[in-house]
Design brief:
Rossmann fold, 7-stranded mixed sheet, two-stranded antiparallel ribbon, globular, binds S-adenosylmethionine
């Protein structure tokens, strides 16, 4: 089995529980923090043709469609896409979904989209350089690319959270930043039964930069969103990410 097939199978197996967690609102960190920042930075999208790459069960696609974009969501897991399609049928937003891997978007013609988005997917993907080449190919000249990943400087293969004497999360220890070897992570949302299994592909800042620069794309912005005080009052878990480290790296680029 190749890397793509393994990842698709993992997300197929995660899909029922992931879809249920999205429906129950278990992913409050992204809902209250990452997604509002992401949508804000996208700017106006009304009427734009947007490809949402690594759409999972469609959460990110639905948020973007709710801003008025015409969204196509792609994911390599057939089961995740089946959940996305079911939710679209239940509550239509005009989103089209397809099973496709971001490093082979052959069913879409060159310069088909005004914008490509990817929310929290590319740190889970093999072949980053090929993925960026495909994003560039399907983007119109001047079209915008907007990517959110777990921040590569803090979510390294050897990261761990350490606790102080009062058993509070007090910081991070980081190691193995330069080790590119994929590793399997098992994790869950606090309220969830069972664990997700995901292979992570550790990329460095330079890997993202090189993949962009070798793909006819021009950087327009790098952002490390920080939770606001108000967000931390609403969701106290976020204070850790206000005090100690950046949870996300947002990368914006433009097709040249
Ligand atoms: C954590 S989920 C996030 C999904 C969604 N963007 C959201 O906001 O909920 C990551 C998804 O990325 C998908 N993915 C990872 N690498 C991919 C690739 N090369 N092509 C297509 N999908 C990919 C996985 O199958 C998984 O469904």
């Amino acid at each position: 089995m190749n890397d793509r097939d393994t990842l698709a199978l993992q997300w197929d197996r995660n899909s029922a529980s992931w879809s249920d967690s999205m429906q129950q609102g278990h992913d409050q960190v992204n809902e209250q923090f990452g997604i509002p920042f992401f949508l804000d930075q996208l700017g106006p999208v009304s009427g734009l043709e947007v490809l949402d790459a690594g759409c999972g069960e469609g959460r990110s696609s639905r948020h973007i469609a709710a801003k008025g974009a015409r969204v196509t969501g792609v994911d390599l897991s057939p089961e995740m896409v089946a959940h996305a399609v079911r939710k679209e049928i239940e509550k239509p937003l005009g989103i089209g979904y397809a099973v496709s891997s971001c490093d082979d978007l052959g069913e879409y013609s060159a310069e088909r989209f005004d914008m490509v988005t990817s929310f929290m997917a590319l740190m889970d993907t093999p072949n980053l350089a090929s993925v960026l080449k495909e994003f560039s190919r399907v983007l119109k000249i001047g079209g915008k690319l907007m990517i959110a990943v777990r921040h590569p400087c803090f979510f390294t293969p050897g990261f761990s959270v350490y606790k102080n004497g009062r058993d509070e999360r007090a910081g991070l220890t980081i190691s193995n930043y330069f080790i590119r070897k994929p590793y399997v992570e098992r994790w869950k949302f606090p309220q969830q039964q069972g664990l997700f299994t995901v292979t992570r592909y550790p990329y460095t800042m330079m890997d993202y930069a090189e993949a962009i620069l070798s793909s006819s794309l021009r950087f327009t912005s790098l952002t490390e969103p920080r939770p606001t005080e108000e967000m931390c009052l609403r969701l106290p878990n976020l204070r850790f990410w206000r005090l100690h480290a950046a949870l996300y790296l947002f990368i914006q680029a433009e097709k040249v």
